């Protein structure tokens, strides 16, 4: 069962804690947030795991949202998730913070105060940067910085309003702070991997300059500050632009393949290799994920037998490239092009998987499959959809990858197909939960992948 930070007894909001007043507000507000993972299951209880006054008028909270357990094949989903919140408290709602307004506390010691998401407030964002500039402790929170980094103060903050799994603030177009929203115990691979790659001398990944975490109720990473690439455009935007203009994207795709191979080589240097992947175990895990996804998304059920053949073929094929640390959630939105160079960001892995699982070495083919799926997503953004455009980008990406990695993903047919299928299954679940309008995109791939040879 995925690990999550779980509540201790007697701290439940609405029981007798000092935050008695926030329970009702958060219960209504949390499920509406893009980053809230349990949208498909009602919240049965909210508990406050830790509260720290970060500065006057700003509370840092770790909150656990419990859900009624739903038995599914492949395991019971976690009873809930832990989320990081920064809450601003003011006497009166501030008009310019209207979008961030959560509500007015009606009971308890905070009664009468206006409560809002403090990350929208430039004053709180500034104070947070100041905290990162001065490493040290605040209650259970620990702020740390790269000793070689000299962070300037007074950089104007700007909240990114991209649809994200987390929340990011850009400071003066020089740094970007990502606050993880869904918190699991342990070091977050986004910090762990980017720090290891920086130590390795890999310049394709922005190196962390400061970060913070908590020691309670269990050690966990809460946020990472990295250099911001001001003139960068993400691969998704570039791909859609090329499609709209009828432009070829194969040159970019080839370069991207090369860049990704370089990152994989650096990752293999930075973390001990794990030996040949065990395809049988990987196939079993893929089958279990398929069953769980089909349980949650009925539209997937007719395709299960066909999809299983891809996993069956994996179980009996050659081992393939050694398992190693990988990106884990690679798609066009995770790569940035600045000038002629591609950079790779967000090494967090698939947000719905337990951290421990995301840190396990996996086949690099998984990342290749993620990017191939992304070309398909992009090509389906236009009508009529452009299968030829996607096919050529996929070829070019693999060719660029092969030129640098020394092995060609196209020659690992069964491995690639199984990982692409597993990734499409993940996408079906992701879209069903977060963006039901997008569900037809991965479902189209599912229909294709369920037919052997398709
Ligand atoms: N170092 C950076 N430089 C420029 N833009 C960045 C950088 N890091 C992230 N971004 C922008 O922020 C967006 C969200 O970042 P990401 O790490 O993918 O967050 P999430 O995990 O919430 O999806 C990216 O799509 C990109 O546009
Ligand atoms: O960027 P995140 O780490 O939050 O990743 C999650 O959200 C992505 C969408 O924003 C999702 O990616 C899927 O949609 C993309 C287009 O928006 C497409 O390029 C990807 O190929 C597709 O997987 C990702 O799966 C999810 O983990």
Structure commentary:
- By secondary structure, this protein is α+β, with helices and mostly antiparallel strands.
- It has helices spanning 23-29, 122-133, 189-199, 235-245, 250-270, 279-296, 304-316, 355-358, 365-379, 387-405, 413-434, 440-449; strands at 43-55, 58-67, 80-90, 101-104, 114-117, 136-138, 141-145, 157-159, 167-171, 175-179, 182-183, 210-214, 220-227, 233-234, 335-338, 341-344.
- The chain is built from twelve helices and 16 strands.
- It has a seven-stranded antiparallel β-sheet, with helices on one face.
- Bound molecules: adenosine-5'-diphosphate and ligand LMANGFYV.
- The ligand O=P(O)(O)O[C@H]1O[C@H](CO)[C@@H](O[C@H]2O[C@H](CO)[C@@H](O)[C@H](O)[C@H]2O)[C@H](O)[C@H]1O is lined by residues 163-165, 236, 329, 331-333, 346, 350-351, 373-374, 377, 427, 430.
- Pathway: Glycan biosynthesis; glycogen biosynthesis.
- Residues 29-121 form the Maltokinase N-terminal cap domain.
- InterPro entries: Kinase-like_dom_sf (IPR011009), Mak_N_cap (IPR040999).
- This is Maltokinase.
């Amino acid at each position: 069962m995925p690990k999550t930070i779980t509540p201790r007894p007697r701290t439940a909001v609405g029981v007798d804690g000092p935050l008695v007043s926030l329970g009702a507000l958060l219960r209504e507000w949390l499920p509406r947030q893009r980053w809230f993972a349990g949208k498909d299951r009602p919240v049965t209880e909210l508990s406050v795991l830790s509260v720290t006054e970060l500065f006057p008028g700003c509370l840092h909270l770790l909150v656990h949202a419990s859900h009624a357990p739903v038995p599914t094949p492949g395991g019971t989903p976690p009873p809930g998730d832990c989320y990081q919140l920064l809450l601003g408290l003011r006497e009166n709602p501030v008009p310019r913070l209207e979008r961030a307004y959560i509500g007015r506390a009606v009971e308890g010691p905070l009664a009468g105060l206006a409560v809002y998401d403090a990350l929208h407030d430039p004053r709180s964002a500034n104070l947070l940067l100041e905290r990162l500039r001065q490493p040290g402790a605040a209650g259970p929170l620990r702020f740390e910085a790269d000793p070689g980094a000299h962070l300037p103060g007074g950089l104007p903050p700007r909240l990114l309003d991209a649809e994200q799994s987390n929340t990011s603030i850009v400071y003066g177009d020089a740094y970007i702070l990502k606050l993880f929203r869904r918190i699991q115990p342990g070091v977050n691979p986004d910090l762990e991997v980017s720090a290891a790659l920086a130590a390795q001398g890999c310049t394709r990944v922005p190196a962390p300059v400061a970060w913070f975490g908590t020691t309670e109720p269990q050690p966990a990473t809460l946020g990472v500050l990295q250099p911001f690439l001001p003139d960068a455009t993400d691969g998704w935007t570039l791909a859609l632009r090329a499609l709209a203009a009828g432009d070829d994207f194969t040159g970019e795709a080839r370069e991207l393949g090369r860049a990704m191979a370089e990152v994989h080589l650096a990752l293999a240097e930075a973390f001990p290799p794990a030996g040949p992947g065990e395809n049988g175990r990987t196939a079993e895990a893929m089958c279990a994920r398929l069953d769980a996804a089909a349980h949650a998304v009925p539209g997937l059920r007719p395709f299960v037998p066909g999809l299983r053949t891809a996993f069956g073929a994996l179980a009996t094929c050659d081992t393939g490239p050694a398992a190693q640390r990988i990106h884990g959630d690679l798609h066009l939105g995770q790569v940035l092009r600045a000038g002629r160079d591609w950079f790779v960001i967000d090494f967090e892995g698939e947000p719905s998987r337990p951290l421990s699982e995301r840190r396990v070495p996996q086949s690099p083919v998984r990342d290749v499959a993620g990017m191939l799926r992304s070309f398909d997503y992009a090509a389906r953004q236009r009508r009529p959809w452009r299968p030829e455009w996607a096919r050529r980008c996929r070829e070019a990406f693999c060719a660029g990858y092969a030129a640098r990695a020394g092995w060609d993903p196209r020659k690992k047919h069964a491995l690639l197909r199984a990982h692409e299928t597993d990734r499409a299954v993940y996408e079906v679940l992701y879209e069903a939960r977060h963006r039901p309008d997008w569900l037809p995109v991965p479902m189209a791939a599912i229909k294709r992948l369920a037919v052997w040879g398709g």
